[in-house]
Structure formats: structure tokens, C-alpha cells
Amino acid sequence: MSSALRRMSTSPFSSCAFQQRTSSWWPSRRPPSTPTSRRSLVVVAAASNFANENREYVIVGGGNAAGYAARTFVEHGMADGRLCIVSKEAVAPYERPALTKGYLFPLDKKPARLPGFHTCVGAGGERQTSEWYKEHGIEVLYEDPVAAIDIQNQILTTSSGNHLKYGSLIISTGCAAVRFPENIGGNLPGVHYIRDVADADSLVSSLEKAKKVVVIGGGYIGMEVAAAAAGWKLDITIIFPEDRIMPRLFTPSLARRYEELYQKNGIKFIKGVLIDKLEGGTDGRVATVLLRNGSIIEADTVIVGIGAKPVVSPFEAIGLNNNVGGIQVDSLFRTSIPGIFAIGDVAAFPLKIYDRMARVEHVDHARKSAQHCVRTLLTAHTQPYDYLPFFYSRVFEYEGSSRKIWWQFYGDNVGDTIEVGDFDLKVATFWLDSESRVKGIFLESGSPEEFSLLPKLAKSQPVVDRAKLQSVTSVEEALEIASSSL
Ligand SMILES: Cc1cc2nc3c(=O)[nH]c(=O)nc-3n(C[C@H](O)[C@H](O)[C@H](O)COP(=O)(O)OP(=O)(O)OC[C@H]3O[C@@H](n4cnc5c(N)ncnc54)[C@H](O)[C@@H]3O)c2cc1C
Ligand SMILES: NC(=O)c1ccc[n+]([C@@H]2O[C@H](COP(=O)([O-])OP(=O)(O)OC[C@H]3O[C@@H](n4cnc5c(N)ncnc54)[C@H](O)[C@@H]3O)[C@@H](O)[C@H]2O)c1
Ligand SMILES: O=C1O[C@H]([C@@H](O)CO)C(O)=C1O
Fold first, then answer.
1. Which residues line ligand 2 (CB under 6 A)?
2. Strand ranges (DSSP E) for 102-223?
3. CA–CA separation, 155 vs 143, rounded Å?
4. What is the per-residue pLDDT across 398-435, written as a single tens digit (0 to 9) for each?
5. Interval 109-146: pLDDT, tens
6. Alpha carbon 363 to chain centroid distance?
7. First to last CA, the chain
8. Beta-carbon neighbour count of residue 295 at 10 Å?
9. Handedness of CA 85, 90, 93, 97 (dihedral sign)
């Protein structure tokens, strides 16, 4: 346990005490109505004198976690006139996973568009449009990222120069896409990164004119975007340095079957190579991708998915984690500074089930960490966050695709793997530790009942008979063996 966390754990109620200490000086009036553009924000700011105006609860970052946090404030009757969200984006929080799935459907296949997928529809909740925030008295400052924090005086400064005095602060700034440097062509027109809806719009406008697409990276973005681009019937090449797609999760045999499916959809693979440079053509737009092995690939559109990094600036002073990056918090999402919390992708939190610090860059944790943190902040709730990692993907799900694929993973992908099933029907991978305990489980194309077994198995970690598990051919039998001792 770090010294910062040890310090915090001696004072489990520090956030509540802090709230009480500061709550008397909050304004009783409602905040100004939600501005919808930078221009209107500036006008409202000037008229209402934002400088040093007190806000009881401020969330920095208007992404996935912020949307679920806002819902939890409303559920506790603590949003109206008390909550302010400071957002870098121009729109209300939305379900980010849609950006590389429904958002990229070909234009004649009914692509998802806002306001269709605002939070919290991804978890079956209400669709919180910008109107919803107004109706619930939640102030949202759009397109005005926080640029600096004064911890001593509890003041945030936004990039447009607004000063916001906060009582309690929740940091939910998420991650940003890792970019190729400018000197190797990382910012050329036609080179896309995909993190927010503006990026997705820009990619869609390139896809409309594209002929030759290069996708760089064999992780989540690479897999999902290449499958989406195949729906547009384009010439697609996916390039990555490893020997197979999704090497951290897919076994070599599963990756091979995925790659075959991608190839059947016309997607070419160049594996085991690094990018040397992206070069522009006479019009200044990207035209070629030069590889370290000397090959040259033509491309009018390049999508780069080479990882993400937590957005910690301007909060470095709050306490970062050296091992997993991000802002260090305890099991109640409290940073080492009383009254300041961090949630979602940016938070480095104790992953209790595996007794280690972790950051999780997936939406289920964004949703659950937000709910847990806000409940802790607003009530006497002090139950530590006990998270079971869960993530999923879906590819080729547009209408007319010959094979829709969806999978889920629960737990920890450590230990040996046993793979069961037939990729064309249904497949599962079990991760077993040295005592043959199930640590993690991946299932593709399962039924709802089968998927519902996954968290139970990953949580209770039953010991399985390896030989028996290896001997079966169907996922149904394998799940029965694994869950027989549940
Ligand atoms: C394209 C894409 C597809 C994904 N698909 C899946 C999926 O299928 N399954 C899955 O489990 N996970 C998926 N994820 C991951 C999931 O979306 C993230 O884990 C989740 O969005 C994290 O929520 P968050 O609120 O922490 O961060 P975000 O949702 O990224 O929100 C952070 C917000 O903070 C804003 N911000 C940053 N800096 C500042 C600042 N200084 N001031 C104000 N605002 C700021 C950002 O603009 C952003 O709006 C996907 C991610 C991406 C990018
Ligand atoms: N279904 C999901 O859960 C989902 C979907 C999309 C995005 N995301 C999230 O979005 C973020 C970004 O995803 P991502 O796919 O970019 O990251 P990733 O870490 O999944 O994959 C990065 C890939 O980039 C490649 N790579 C790394 N450095 C490279 C380099 N210098 N040159 C060429 N290739 C390189 C490697 O193939 C690596 O596998 C992550 O937080 C991820 O969790 C999640
Ligand atoms: O979690 C998700 O939310 C969106 C969509 O379901 C919202 O309607 C999406 O594509 C996900 O994977």
C-alpha cells in the first residue's frame, strides 16, 4: 500500500467531513442555464460572473463515467443546483463504445447518431440528453476544458479563463489516444485517431471518399474499425507489430480464426512490422505508409489505434501512480487530497479481487466506479469497491454482414489457457492458474444464459479438472464442467 493510500485510510470519512465543512457557503440559487457552444458560454460567463462562484460538486470531464455519475447524483436528489460538469466536448455524455460500432455502419445501414446513444442507454438506463441535464438543474459547461487547478483555494481554471470554486471534485478525464508524432506524419489530413464523436465524424467523412484504408494497431480500435470499414467495401490493410491480432487476449488459435474471418471480408494483414513514416501526397493528404521493412503501402485514409494514455494533466499534483499510470485513489475513489475523487479510465484503484493496483480502460468500470464514488460521496456508504473486470466487443454487426461476432471476457487473463468449441459456432477460452482455478473466461457467440455464467465463474474461481475440460469439444459441456462446483 502506498503512503498516500495509507494516509487516507486512517480517515475513512474525510470526504464527508470535508463536505460538511464546506457546504454552508454554497449558493442556494440554481446555476446559469446550460450553454451549448463556446460562444454562448462566453456570453453567459460574462453575464453571471463565473469567477470564484461556488459550486458544491464539480465533475471534470463529460464522458462515459460523468454521465453515470450525474445519474447517481439525481438518484440521490443531490443534483439540482448543486452539480456542475465541466466538459471538453460539445455534447452531453454518451456511450463511447458506439463510436467504433454502430457509428461506423455504412450510411445506408442506419448508423447510430446522437442523441441516440447518450448515457445511460448502454446499461439500460434513461437517455440523458442536454435537455435532461437542464431539467435536473445540472450545469454543464461545454467545450471548455479545465486547464489548471489551485488545490489550496479549490479553484479550477478553464481554458476560456473561467474560474470555478468547487466543494468536492470528481476527476473523470478518461484517456486520450496515443498519436504518432508530427515529424512522422501523425497529424497529416486523412490520418485519424478515434476517441470522441468529433473524431468519429471526421473519420466518417473520410470513409465517404475513401478507396484505400490502412488501419494501424491490432488491438480493440484496430479490430473494430477494420471490421467496420469492411462494411463500406473498401480496400483495407491492417498493420501491427505483433504476430497476431489482439495478442493480449486471443490465444494463437483464436487469433488465427479471427484473422481468417477478417480475410474472408477482404481485409489484408501485415504483421510483425513497425511504421516508419506516414507521407502526404501533392494535395497534402496522407498518401503512403512506409514500413520499417522498406515496404510502401498506399492509403488515402489511415486510422491509428495504438493505445491510449490517461489524461492526468493538469492534475499531476494530486498523486499519480507510477506503475499503472493515472490518478491514484483508494477503494472509495478518494485521492490523497480530501474532497477530490477520480473515476473511470483515469483512476488507478485497488483491484481488490486480485490484490493489486490497476487501471481499467473499459466502459463497465467507468459506469460502476462512477456510481460507487458518488454513492460514497453523498451517503455514509463506505463499502470498498470490489470490481470484477469485464469487457466486451462486437464486430461485423451491421445488416448484411455474413457473420456477426460478439464476445465477453470476465476476470483476469493470467495462467494457462484451454480453448473449447468451434469458432464457426461458439468458442470459449478458460484461463487457469497453477492450482487449476478458473481466473478468466472468454466466450464468443454464447446464449444469454451462458454469458450469465461468466461472472459467476470468474468471481468464485472454481477448481476444474483440466483433463476433463480439455477432452470436451463443445462450449456447453465445458461450461457445465466449470460450473459443476459453483
Ligand atoms: C472508440 C472507443 C470504443 C470503445 N469501445 C468499448 C467497448 O466496446 N467495450 C468496453 O468495455 N469499452 C470500450 N471503450 C472504452 C470505454 O469507452 C472507456 O473505458 C470509457 O469511455 C471511460 O469513461 P471515462 O468517463 O473514464 O472516460 P471518457 O469516456 O473518455 O470521458 C472523458 C471525458 O473527459 C474529457 N476531458 C479530458 N480532459 C479534460 C479536461 N481537462 N477538462 C474537461 N474535460 C476533459 C474528454 O473530452 C472526455 O469527454 C471504448 C473506447 C473508445 C475510445
Ligand atoms: N471493446 C473495447 O473494450 C474497446 C474498443 C475500442 C477501444 N477501447 C479502448 O480504447 C483505447 C484504445 O484502444 P487501442 O485499440 O488503441 O489500444 P490497444 O492497447 O487495445 O491496442 C494497441 C495496439 O496498437 C499496436 N501498437 C502499439 N504501438 C504501436 C506502434 N508504435 N506502431 C504500430 N502499432 C502499435 C499494437 O498492435 C497494440 O496491440 C483503450 O483504452 C481500449 O481499452 C476498448
Ligand atoms: O455499451 C454500449 O453502448 C452503446 C449502445 O449500446 C448504446 O445504445 C454501444 O454500442 C455499446 O457497446
1. 100, 175, 216-222, 224, 240-242, 274-275, 305-308, 361-362, 391, 393
2. 139-141, 146-150, 155-158, 163-171, 175-177, 191-192, 212-216
3. 18
4. 988 889 999 999 999 999 999 999 998 999 999 999 99
5. 999 999 999 999 999 999 999 999 999 999 999 999 99
6. 5
7. 32
8. 12
9. negative
With a Cβ cut-off of 6 Å, ligand 3 is lined by 95, 97-98, 101-102, 117, 121-122, 363
Quote ipTM for the complex: 0.99
Identify the nearest ligand to the CA of 87 by its number: 1
DSSP assigned state of 380: S
Determine which residue's CA is closest to atom 26 belonging to ligand 2. Answer: 306
Q: Nearest bound ligand to CA 345?
A: 1
Q: How far is the CA of 438 from the centre of ligand 3 (A)?
A: 28
Give the CA distances from residue 36 to residues 231, 244, 404, 415, 426, in Å, rounded to whole numbers and listed in that order.
34, 44, 38, 50, 46
Tell me how crowded residue 248 is: count the other CB atoms within 10 A of its CB: 8
pTM, two decimals, is: 0.92
Exposed/middle/buried for 474, CB within 10 Å: 0-12, 13-18, 19+? middle
- In the reported structure, the alpha carbon of residue 443 is separated from the centroid of ligand 3 by a whole-number distance in angstroms of 19
